[in-house]
Amino acid sequence: MTDNANDKVSCICCKFMSPIFNNLSKQELNYLREISHEVVFQAGEIIFKQGTPLTHVICISGGAAKLYVELSGKKKIILRLLLPTDIAGVSGINSDHKHHFSLSAIETTNTCFIEVSAFKKIIRENPAFAYGIIGYINNSHNRLYSKLKNFTQKNTNGKVADTLLYLANEVYNNDTFATLLSRQDMADMSITTRESTIRILKEFKDQHIIDFSEKHFEILQKELLRRISQFG
Amino acid sequence: MTDNANDKVSCICCKFMSPIFNNLSKQELNYLREISHEVVFQAGEIIFKQGTPLTHVICISGGAAKLYVELSGKKKIILRLLLPTDIAGVSGINSDHKHHFSLSAIETTNTCFIEVSAFKKIIRENPAFAYGIIGYINNSHNRLYSKLKNFTQKNTNGKVADTLLYLANEVYNNDTFATLLSRQDMADMSITTRESTIRILKEFKDQHIIDFSEKHFEILQKELLRRISQFG
DNA sequence: CGCGAGCTTGACGTTGTTCAACTAGAGTGG
DNA sequence: CCACTCTAGTTGAACAACGTCAAGCTCGCG
Prior knowledge:
The structure is a homodimer. Chain A is of the alpha+beta class.
């Protein structure tokens, strides 16, 4: 974890600025920029851990991080990957002020730490910003609802197919991609075991639905994969 | 569905007023009261349906309603029961303006319909209210996170135990209760089938963990039930 | 060369769903 | 008053999907 406190460029006014800051005045942006800190995390490092006090909202301005809920034992559910312009920690504001999930870098990741109190201050002073925040939280809330369906109803084939489609469509924006995620990570995204994930990936490969070697994946029959995800 | 439009008592200033309205001025409360409508639903009637446009925020001022996500086929997940002072629909504001779940009355239920536009107006004018709303949404967001754990990791015994504890602790506030929910409803809350729910309830009864006949339940060994819920 | 981490494969057992049948009670109509 | 039908609840049997366990495999690194 490298602290570049003197580098005030930050994601508040860089090209990776989250759209939720669009409603801010120049003064407000400057204020946030003043108090924010850029921090770089290396792959594998934990950005924050579930259960710890929520002191900062974190903006991602480079790299990628996995957002996961820790369960009993070593089990975890990876809910999504955070990419530049994504934000974490907003869902603790005015709630119990704890992190309800952990965030860990899967590659070198640039983050901006903004004190929650500053966020609060601006929410109270700028209603348009507050309204934007409400929209932002509601969107993630609704995303969670659709995840519920994935996680509770689909068979394992469907869940793995879902993970592949998520990676292609929403993370790598390409049907061919090389990922840094391990098989265990992909299992944690699909709520299943490492072994089952491997077996299903192989099955998909045998049926020429996907192709892969090691961490390089290629989706060959996307429509079919989509149907497996939907009806599986 | 009985419309008592002329009855302006409503939940905005009644004893079932949701705490989220605490930050409102007298004028704002009056404004909301002016434009809100009280509507009474009978058991089994749908208050709103998943996918329909979100036009009103709905406050519950009497009775009880089940909040559920509809899945393919007849399947559904009942996420929680809404009771007086609960609110529904807030999580669609400034998002896609659709309902992401359905709400249906399980007994005669009094509701207050407040236009979303009025909600928006006040959010934009009263930052303290906006801040309160953010806290409210975040709390339900976080509740959903803990549900994830229940739904994806526990065995069926654990999930049914969880449902029983939820009903006793959070709905009926009593270890002995008579419910209006059917076995199917209890299964939909536990993400399992009617048959499995019945088998497990019977098993709990045989082990003297609970007792029941028909819709009347009594929790005999709460601590044990809690352990089943936790480690199941 | 040896070690460890991540990946892969096979065998096995359990859990829980599915299907089908049966019961009980409530409502309906001859 | 007795079929009937419909719904909700219950039980049993059979099957299949998945998780668990155990063993090997590959590759990189000291």
